[in-house]
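Notebook entry, structure prediction.
Reason for the run: the old model in the group folder had no record of what sequence produced it. Starting over properly, with the input documented here first.
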Amino acid sequence: MNVLLTLFFIFSSLFMAGLPSPLFAASENVNINATVPGPVCGDGIIGSGEQCDGSNLGGATCVSVGFGGGSLSCKANCTYNTSQCISTPPPSSGGGGGGGGNVAPTTGMVFSGRAYPLSKVVVLKDGQIAVSTIAGPDARFEISLAGLSTGNYNFAVYGEDSKGIRSNLFTFPSYIVSGVTAKVSGIFLTPTIAVDKSEVKRGENIAIFGQSIPSSEVTISVNSEEEFFIKKISDAGGVYLLNFDTSILEMGQHLTKSKAALGEEISSFSRTVSFTVGAKNVFAQSLNILKGDLNNDGRVNLVDFSIAAYWYKQPIDAEFSVKEKERLNGDGKVDLTDFSIMAYYWTG
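New structure, fully documented this time:
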């Protein structure tokens, strides 16, 4: 605009002085050139091609340029300086009421691993059922436990197969930190195991069976003077069956247990089940032996607690060792873990 006014005054002055005006006297090939200065970075004015200029941000903020917050400034080359902006957007507030704010982080546990196809999987917290789920057809499960407080806990996980037979407890202590969800993965529950006879006539077969992961290699141990190991492959439903010839066993009581392997994963041994090799067949009345029942009365109460308390933290004898393996933790001693098992199965 200033250039145009200057040219106008020049032309007017020449015309008023009676001199030929360049506007009329110049040939048709004459060009008039005028240079208009462009925007200057640093003059505090946001010109063409500039995002900002000095302290002039044009109303822009970190949020308006795509960040979650912070302090936006201007570089010497008149582009935004976002070094003080927050890159992670803040959590959105809930709809409805006023306010909003940060969502409190969850405190809890996540358990995942393998059990048996379409089986019930249960998590115990300090001996009490906390949460349960159903494993998938491939025996995999994942189960979450939220809303925990900071502190020490004793967790245990067990599976229950299609016949209602339970696995050994997968137990572990854990300290929970507020705001943290801890994950326990790679759990491989032990196979379930049962026998069809409590006493078998020597020379006849006893069926040893249970459930594990589909197509897994199940190793079955039969404990005699010599320990026998037999391998079977579980079927598509995870079921395994061994018809064991007892002619190689001596007369008397025997123990059997099993463990499973799939690839590089190996479970611990299952609970131990006892049977007797004798002169007759006695079919098992119940495939489930009540955990914690130490006096065989079908109940878990103070009598059983007293029996376990007698052996607490001292060597156990051979007779009680059978019951400890079958009805308690199976680690050859009586400790707090065994009392937790009794508390879970408590009938009173």
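Summary: Residues 1-8, 14-36, 88-100 have pLDDT under 50 and may be disordered.
The old model has been moved to the deprecated folder.
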